[in-house]
UniProtKB/TrEMBL annotation:
Gene3D superfamilies in alphabetical order: 3.30.70.270, EAL domain, PAS domain
One Gene Ontology MF term: catalytic activity
NCBIfam families: GGDEF, sensory_box
GGDEF domain span: 288-422
All copies of domain PAC, residue ranges: 81-134, 204-256
Protein name: Diguanylate cyclase
Domain of life: Bacteria
All residue ranges annotated as the EAL domain in the record: 431-685
Length: 703
């Protein structure tokens, strides 16, 4: 009795043990017939027990799974065991994978061998293996470099792209700290901020200059992510990077073209504006003065006409060197284009102390130049102004003052300087209309719009018009915008005038539609109006009054400087307006100080090249270089381009050769009243020279 009880107890323990196992267990005879099974995982069975007990593998399993089971049993019969063979089944919950272990029973029924089959569910392990395999393929075949480091920055793995970009083999870097790539360009503070971001945010992204194995420095766009375990501890850092060195070099070339004169190497108008703003800010902080001297050469045109542009160019280069020799360290000499130069004189206690230096510049210019055996003589008329003044003014206003003073020097006989009279200028500005008078003009409907056509020079198609405000003054006649708009630039009245311009332009567009003309209109929008919190809502209300308006019929032109003042706000406004069907153009492009980052972020559709670059492009190689740079930049960022200031057939022909087809200017049409547009359009024909023009790139490909 005791032996029977012990046997029963042992059997119960065995059954409990088998019941606790997550595996499927079968007893199978040599012919593949299933005699018994044990498992609580009925969801893993290919069929209910009543269907498979007493039947063979081939009766209930797919051919491939049945073949695996037979192979395992054959192997167990030969070796005494079989392990590691796998098969898959399509079950209701999806594909499931099993790992098979088989062993023969020590005693068989009726002398025929029997086997015990144990099938373990490895579906999750199989999925993990596939994910690891996929991750491995991505790691090895990614075009971006990938490196994995431990928490201290020691490299534990890199991919092939890492080796291609850095020049190091995998064996050379494993176990080494990632610092071996450092170029030294970034300081301790840079890396301190990087590690702070990794610890606090879990990632860091930015541009880094590193060094290849051969010593060459390269720029990379780098993203680093922190990997933590279940306890939140940092176990690895994974870095993904791409080589952006060609892009950085192209950016530097564009910046050089954009900020330095191609002929003399001196700062150009853009860099001059930036340096003048810096000098003015520094003078305000230190309680000092800044002087601006605007030089225009007398007699230079005669040199060009008599001896040719090559000699004239060498004369300008020699003059640039001579003037720089007379300036002090910290002063700036810039060439604006043609025969115009500007000097910024800084760190001055009194304005009068610099006048001898100005006289020295004039004397240096008047000394003979010896070029190619020729003795050339020119002189300079110089306008001088200073900062600070009693009234607030910006860098552009300071340059305009110096320019006006220069013309006074020319009128006084040339080869001399003239100091800008701020009191006289203040008195003249006092004669302009007061804000109240302009408010009356708005109420009395004295403002009118003129429209300047914009065309595709190659096809001759009218692509739109720009609405330009004029003041039909009852006493002074038709006044241009520069004579009254600056006075209200920062005043609420400018918003009222701006909204009137939009309304009047849309009304005119409706009159054109009534005679069968569909003409898109662009309107200039000032910074103050654009930055109003309710700008989009007021625009939407205005558009609802013109239900026939189609997307693209209205376009806003904004100045580069106003767009960059509040980049985030302006970007949001542009996006909201585009949702209403209103596009944006960046006006006077190239006269501000935009970077590639700003251009990439600002969602404007069109860039309008400032007329100052187009006007002198036929003689000025620097302007041509800037135009080519701007056109290349526009193509890179998917922007359209319109050139302003096309005054002659030659201007248009050269622009077409450069690949710029859209333009406006006096060479196409002067601004006109809205009712004159239909008659002009009937008479308008593009110049034959423009119609036959072939882009320069196409000419080169056909050569």
């Amino acid at each position: 009795m005791q032996a029977q009880a012990a046997l029963s107890h042992a059997n119960n323990k065995l059954q409990a043990t088998l019941g606790a196992l997550p595996d499927l267990m079968f007893e199978v005879s040599l012919d593949g017939r299933i005699h018994q099974y044990q498992s609580h995982r009925s969801d893993l069975l290919a069929a209910p027990p009543e269907l498979f007990l007493g039947k063979c593998f081939a009766d209930i399993l797919p051919p491939q799974a049945s073949a695996v089971c037979q192979q395992a049993m054959d192997e167990a019969g030969r070796k005494g065991f079989s392990a590691g063979l796998r098969y898959a089944l399509d079950l209701p919950q999806g594909e499931c994978w099993f790992d098979l272990s088989v062993a023969p029973l020590a005693s068989s029924v009726g002398g025929a061998p029997h086997f015990i089959f144990i099938a373990r569910d490895i579906t999750e392990r199989k999925r993990a293996e596939k994910q690891l395999e996929l991750a491995g393929l991505v790691f090895q075949h990614a075009r971006e470099g990938i490196m994995v480091s431990d928490p201290d920055g020691v490299l534990v793995d890199v991919n092939e792209a890492f080796c291609r970009i850095t020049g190091y083999s995998r064996s050379e870097v494993l176990g080494k700290n990632a610092r071996l790539l450092s170029s030294g360009r970034q300081g301790k503070e840079f890396y301190r901020l990087m590690w702070t971001s990794l610890l606090q945010a879990g990632y860091w992204s930015g541009e880094v200059w590193n060094r290849r194995k051969d010593g060459e420095e390269y720029a990379e766009l780098l993203t680093i992510s922190t990997v933590r375990n279940d306890q939140g501890q940092v176990v690895q850092h994974v870095a993904l990077f791409s080589d952006i060195t060609p892009l950085k070099r192209y950016q530097l070339e564009l910046e050089s073209i954009a900020h330095f004169d191609a002929l003399t190497g001196l700062p150009n108008r853009l860099l001059l504006s930036d340096r003048l703003q810096q000098a003015m800010a520094q003078a305000a902080r230190r309680g000092q003065k800044v002087m601006v001297a605007y030089l225009d050469l007398d007699g230079f045109k005669s040199v060009n006409d008599q001896y040719g542009h090559a000699v004239g160019d060498r004369l300008l280069v020699a003059l640039g060197h001579r003037l720089q020799d007379h300036l002090r360290d910290g002063d700036t000499l810039a060439r604006l284009g043609g025969d115009e130069f500007v000097a910024i004189l800084v760190d001055l206690e009194e304005s009068e102390t610099v006048l001898p230096l100005i006289a020295g510049l004039i004397a240096a210019t008047a000394e003979p130049f010896h070029i190619d055996g020729l003795t050339l003589r020119i002189s300079a008329s110089v306008g001088v102004t200073s900062y600070p003044q009693s009234a607030e003014l910006d860098a552009d206003q300071l340059l305009r003052q110096a320019d006006q003073a220069m013309y006074q020097a020319k009128l006084a006989g040339k080869n001399r300087y003239h100091v800008f009279d701020t009191q006289r200028d203040s008195d003249m500005r006092g004669h302009f209309e007061s804000l109240e008078r302009m408010r009356q003009a708005l109420c009395r409907k004295e403002f009118v719009l003129h429209y300047q056509p914009k065309v595709n020079m190659r096809s001759g198609q009218l692509i739109g018009v720009e609405a330009l405000i004029r003041w039909q003054h009852p006493e002074r006649g038709l006044m241009p915008p520069l004579s009254f708009l600056p006075a209200i630039e920062e005043h609420q009245l400018s918003i009222d005038v701006g909204e009137w311009v939009m309304d009047a332009a849309l009304a005119q567009q409706g009159r054109w539609r009534s005679v069968g003309l569909h003409i898109p209109v662009s309107v200039n929008v000032g910074a103050l109006q654009l930055q109003q919190p309710d700008f989009v809502q007021r625009l939407q209300a205005l558009l609802q009054r013109y239900p026939d308006l189609r997307p693209g019929d209205l376009q806003f032109e904004i100045l580069e400087t106003s767009a960059l003042q509040e980049m985030q706000q302006v970007t949001a406004v542009i996006g909201a307006c585009k949702a209403l069907g209103v596009d944006f153009a960046l006006d006077d492009f190239g006269t501000g100080y935009s970077s590639l980052t700003y251009l990439r972020q600002l969602p404007v559709h069109i860039l309008k090249i400032d007329q100052s670059f187009v006007r002198d492009m036929l003689q000025n190689t620097e302007d041509q270089a800037i135009l080519r740079g701007v056109l290349g930049l526009a193509r890179s960022f998917g922007r359209e381009v319109i050139a302003e200031g096309v005054e002659t057939q030659a201007h248009g022909a050269l622009l077409l050769q450069m690949g710029c087809e859209a333009a406006q200017g006096y060479g196409i049409a002067r601004p006109m009243i809205g009712d004159a547009i239909p008659d002009w359009l009937q008479r308008w024909n593009s110049h034959p020279q423009w119609l036959e023009s072939v882009p320069q790139t196409l000419q080169e490909s056909l050569a």
